[in-house]
Amino acid sequence: MKGAELLGARQMRFLERWANDSRGDVRMKAVVSQTLFANVATLPKGSRADEITTKLPIQPPGGYAEGEAPVQDHDSNGWPQTPRLAALRLMRKAGAIHIAGDQHLGSTIQYGIDTFRDGPFAICVPSVANFWPRRWFPEEDGANRAPGAPRNTGDYLDGFGNKMTVFAVSNPHTLGIAPADINDRAPGYGIITFDRIEHTITMANWPRWVDPSSPGAKPYSGWPITIRQEKRDRVVK
Predict the structure, then answer these.
(1) In this structure, is residue 199 part of a structural domain?
(2) d(CA 178, CA 206)
(3) pTM reported for the whole predicted model
(4) How far from 77 is each of 24, 137, 167, 212, CA to CA, in Å?
(5) pLDDT tens-digit profile of 126-141?
(6) I want to staple 130 with a disulfide (CB 3.0 to 4.6 A). Which of 90, 136, 185, 204 is the partner?
């Protein structure tokens, strides 16, 4: 839509100044916003509103909802595309990762700007009390995904047509952990670790019921994901 804004003129001016600022002890950067600049969500084909999200059956462990497609959810910042791309270009210039929430579904993606995998990485942390269990069950397998990676990872166009590479998602599953009305909906939190010595950033989404300091504690499947600061197009672990 012509003239549509995402961040607004004042925020864009700030982002541009900040992207160019490497003074003093600036070593690593992150952009924090309410929600992702993409839409990692699917619904049954033909669905136009996500009011049905809470009524959809939650899959058993290892289950996959068939017949779903990416949707246009304006609760994300996947639209409008022109100012969205302008903001992503500045994030890339800054060498920043993007930390967000609000979409309820935990995910780690890499934005595509002109091509797949040429933009910043982003982590969307899951809701700690998730009563709106969004999901990512695209019918099409992701392109160029890593060998052995889940079928719903890899290169995709979201419902708005934005390029994104999905590395991990924490879909809701029936896990038998009480209280089921919360824990079956993939609640949790995110931990992002910046290593200024090794120049790496490690992202992980954790289940609500897991204490990360406990022996043997593990995040949701697919995490942790580590990227190298000076090679932001590459996952190193």
Answers:
(1) no
(2) 17
(3) 0.94
(4) 32, 20, 19, 30
(5) 999 988 999 999 999 9
(6) 185
